[in-house]
Design brief:
Blueprint lengths: L7 E6 L3 H11 L3 E7 L2 E6 L2 E6 L4 H4 L12 E4 L3 H10 L9 E3 L2 E7 L5 E7 L2
Length: 125
């Protein structure tokens, strides 16, 4: 088991913790690590620990309302972007962007149920 010191942790504020757990574990290969209260859970994928904080958590209360959305997102590397897109679309998910290609690879953006960004990225081989 990975110790907390070995994880890179990212906090995402979510409206519905259970919907977020279901999204990340069902569609993106995360594993539920803990769900000690209905307002909080954390899921992991490799060395990424994603903290899912509902409206009642201290993390959500400490965030000023006027920050606006930035372009920050988690970045998940996939072996075959087209296959992942087909799999997720067939599960009823929609994407925020079209596939973008660049010198380093191809990527597409989707959002979780709370609107947090996820980038699926296939590097150029």
């Amino acid at each position: 088991m990975t110790t907390p010191e070995q994880f890179a942790s990212v906090r995402y504020l979510v409206d519905d913790v259970q919907a977020a757990i279901d999204f990340y574990t069902t569609h993106l290969g995360f594993t539920l690590r803990s769900n000690p209260a209905p307002a909080f859970a954390d899921v992991t994928r490799g060395p990424l620990r994603l903290l899912l904080s509902g409206p009642a958590t201290s993390g959500a209360r400490a965030t000023p309302n006027d920050l606006g959305a930035g372009g920050n997102r988690i970045h998940l590397t996939v072996d075959d972007l087209d296959t992942e897109i087909d799999r997720l679309r067939s599960a009823g998910l929609t994407f925020l962007s079209d596939v973008v290609s660049g010198p380093g690879g191809r990527q597409i953006l989707l959002t979780d149920p709370a609107g947090n960004l996820i980038e699926l990225f296939q590097p150029t081989r």
